Amino acid sequence: MNQALASAEPVHNYCSGTQPGVLSEIYQPELNLVYWQRETDVQALEYAQYLAGPDCYFSSKSSVLGEAEVADWLNEVLPEHSGKAAFVEDVAILADMFSCLFDLSNVGIRLQALQRAMCPKFHVDKVPCRLVTTYTGATTEWLENSTVDRSGLGAGSRADKAKVPNEQSGLVYTEADIKRVPEQSVVLLKGEGWWQNEGNGIVHRSPQASASEPRVFLSFDFAN
Predict the structure, then answer these.
(1) What is the pTM of this model?
(2) Measured between alpha carbons, how far is 186 from 194 in angstroms, rounded to an integer?
(3) In 3D, which of 91, 55, 94 has the Cα closest to residue 73?
(4) N or C end of the chain: smaller count of CB under 10 Å?
(5) Is 223 exposed, middle or buried, given 0-12, 13-18 or 19+ CB atoms closer than 10 A?
């Protein structure tokens, strides 16, 4: 049996594993979230902490690139500091994995240092699939299909009109139902734009962040 798939543990609408091959499970129709629980290179993490720290003024960079262009672009736009080479290599490897998994000639890349929640309310994305990883800080929060009332999603919904936190709107059954991806994990979030997945995009949100507890967040999107 393939070691990567042997490490996958399907549960409801998500699965996880300790080998990168688990990410290919996103093609299973019943799954809308898959994560690879990994250990990131120590030097790469130290560089990410520098990006989030008070001595660096980095905030956000984004572009549409071919997989082979990612490393050169990062070397150009990122500040010099110890661990930069390891960080660039890690991001470039993830770009290669994302491109190969979905046969993409170009990807949309976004790298941000955040001091507040980017998308603080639970929502679904209108994209086929997005790769997300958080190098430092709190990680993505999400809900299983069985624990969310989708009628509470989006503009004009009961939750939106109530102007109250998700936990008080009826969208979430109990606060204990809110799950958080393990630290350093690489996550695939299947959206509403995936073939025959309308109404089943993963419900998720950005966690809280602050100046004292910033996040360094990377995402890849389809760009073809």
Answers:
(1) 0.85
(2) 19
(3) 91
(4) N
(5) middle
